[in-house]
């Protein structure tokens, strides 16, 4: 039965996969056309399917089937150039000059569907309270405050702007809010569009009012018959936008060229900004991984140092415990010998006083005392054993243990306590091993009068 290829494969390294995704588009293109896919899979620790997906995502051509065999046979093959990315194509197309004038469509020319819908909405909108203009605010169309007589001209201007913008990959989208009009959008950058026909004072018209004590008077106005195009960038850190006003010296065709240039340049700069942000994010990610790797190395070195210190402490404690066990065993032996000498002296005194005769109680006590004294001897516990209780070579102890055995003798009652050093605070956070000062004398503190 053939082996399972999936189970026989080696697991891919996460670090290699991370390094593989850090390659730039140009670096990956050079690698794919310089080394075969099998060798790249082994070098990077990723599958050939992952390499193919990455190339498709970045629009990188790959060598066709049989390319490496033909290359080994000595044939000279031509490598296709690296095609530009979608962002690069957009920057190139949107950066083309618009010109100084944009012609308006003729009366018989069919308008763009959005421009035709814009015209229909303007003609069907009700007039505002002053009965002069319509106020259009729909989510899929530009905002407008113009007269119905100016509606065909505004629709033609919108048609011309749509033609320039869409030919460069900038489309007019519907707003997600019912309070805002539609906007040009690419990525997360938006540009709202508004057509306005300002009101001007009527020539020769007098102000009229009700003669209020504050002297308020209303000025008679009329539509100017000129279009104003406004752009709002929707960016809090930028200006509110720009306005272009039609006048006797500035025709609408010139204004449209300036508006279209502004829109194209805005999105070109936005795309360049996103590319720089993407490069910076990639740079920050690589630096973060380097810092994390360095931190892991420092943590590993710190753990090794801590383990080395613990190992040295364990060896030192084992040696000190064996020395302490020797002192404890010697003290237990001294107690054993002195206890036996005391028992022997007790038996001698009793025999001298009682004509070499012992009472049953005295015999029982002597038996109990001898057994107790016998238990005080360190030899009863097998001490000393030179192999377990003597000096050892620290080099023979493996790193991390197991460490030499320790007897852990109980402390003899006759062994003196070693007093701990007295610590006296002197100021904030300060310590000293000097003894505390003596108390103030009572007779000097409270002298007689």
Provide an overview of this structure.
- The chain is of the alpha+beta class.
- It has three domains: 5-83, no CATH class; 102-202 and 218-250, no CATH class; 275-432, no CATH class.
- Helices cover 46% and strands 9% of the residues.
- The protein has helices spanning 5-8, 14-21, 25-32, 37-44, 48-57, 67-72, 86-94, 113-124, 151-167, 252-353, 360-375, 386-389, 442-445; strands at residues 134-136, 143-146, 171-173, 183-186, 189-196, 199-201, 221-223, 228-232, 242-245, 424-425, 431-432.
- The strands form three sheets. Strands 1, 2, 3, 4, 5, 8 and 9 form a seven-stranded mixed sheet that branches.
- A hairpin with a 2-residue loop joins strand 4 and strand 5.
- Helix 8 packs antiparallel against helix 9 (151-167).
- The longest helix is centred in the C-terminal third of the chain and has 102 residues, at 252-353.
- It is elongated and about 155 Å long.
């Amino acid at each position: 039965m053939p082996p399972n290829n999936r189970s026989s494969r080696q697991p891919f390294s996460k670090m290699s996969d991370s390094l593989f995704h850090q390659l730039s588009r140009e670096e990956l293109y050079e690698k794919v056309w310089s080394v075969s896919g099998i060798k790249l899979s082994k070098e990077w620790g990723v599958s050939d399917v992952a390499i193919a997906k990455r190339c498709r995502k970045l629009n990188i051509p790959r060598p066709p089937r049989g390319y490496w065999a033909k290359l080994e046979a000595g044939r000279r093959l031509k490598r296709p150039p690296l095609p530009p990315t979608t962002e690069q194509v957009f920057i190139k197309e949107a950066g083309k000059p618009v010109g100084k004038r944009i012609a308006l469509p003729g009366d018989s020319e069919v308008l763009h569907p959005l421009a035709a819908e814009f015209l229909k909405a303007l003609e069907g909108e009700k007039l505002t309270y002053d009965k002069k203009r319509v106020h259009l605010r729909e989510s899929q169309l530009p905002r407008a405050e113009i007269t119905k007589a100016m509606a065909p001209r505004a629709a033609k201007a919108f048609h011309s702007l749509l033609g320039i913008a869409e030919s460069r990959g900038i489309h007019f989208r519907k707003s997600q809010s019912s309070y805002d009009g539609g906007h040009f959008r690419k990525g997360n950058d938006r540009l709202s569009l508004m057509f306005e026909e300002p009101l001007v004072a009527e020539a020769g018209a007098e102000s009229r009012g009700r003669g209020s004590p504050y002297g308020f008077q209303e000025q008679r106005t009329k539509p100017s018959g000129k279009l104003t195009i406004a752009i709002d960038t929707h960016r809090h850190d930028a200006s509110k936008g720009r306005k272009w006003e039609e006048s006797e010296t500035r025709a609408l065709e010139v204004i449209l060229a300036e508006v279209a240039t502004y829109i194209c340049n805005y999105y070109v700069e936005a795309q360049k900004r996103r590319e720089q942000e993407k490069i910076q994010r990639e740079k920050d990610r690589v630096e973060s991984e380097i810092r994390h790797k360095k931190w892991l190395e420092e943590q590993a070195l710190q753990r090794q140092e801590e383990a080395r210190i613990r190992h040295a402490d364990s060896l030192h404690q084992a040696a000190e415990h064996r020395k302490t066990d020797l002192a404890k065993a010697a003290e237990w032996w001294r107690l054993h010998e002195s206890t036996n000498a005391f028992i022997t002296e007790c038996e001698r005194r009793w025999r001298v006083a009682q004509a070499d005769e012992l009472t049953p109680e005295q015999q029982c006590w002597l038996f109990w005392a001898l057994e107790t004294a016998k238990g005080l001897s360190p030899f009863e516990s097998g001490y000393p054993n030179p192999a377990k209780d003597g000096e050892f070579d620290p080099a023979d102890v493996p790193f991390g243990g197991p460490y030499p055995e320790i007897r852990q003798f109980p402390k003899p009652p006759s062994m003196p306590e070693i007093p701990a050093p007295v610590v006296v605070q002197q100021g904030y956070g300060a310590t000293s091993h000097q003894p505390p000062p003596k108390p103030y004398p009572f007779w000097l503190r409270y002298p007689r009068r």
